[in-house]
Amino acid sequence: MAAKAIGVTTQALSQWPQSLPRRLEDRVVAAATRKYLAPELGRLMASAEKEGVQEGAAC
């Protein structure tokens, strides 16, 4: 699943070194962010926008 998220085969992933070069490290972090953090941020932003609209309507 992790290999697919960053666009490499599992065979390629198994050949990566223990310490990743910065470009590969960035790809892994970006994939994890999209999968796990982005949905939560979307919910938080929607909630904040909704509260902002309600507060703005009361003024």
Please give a handful of descriptors for the protein shown.
80% helix; mainly alpha; 59 residues
Describe this protein's structure.
The chain is mainly alpha-helical and 59 residues long. The chain has a domain at 20-58. The chain has three helices and no strands. The protein has helices at residues 2-6, 10-14, 22-58. It starts with a helix and ends with a helix.
Number of helices: 3
* Percent of residues in beta strands: under 5%
**Rg value:** 18 Å
* String of helices and strands: HHH
| Major sheet characteristics | none
Quantity of strands, as a count = 0
Distance between the termini: 48 Å
Please provide a brief summary of the model.
The chain has 59 residues and is mainly alpha-helical.
Write the layout of secondary structure elements.
Elements (H helix, E strand, L loop, with lengths): L1 H5 L3 H5 L7 H37 L1
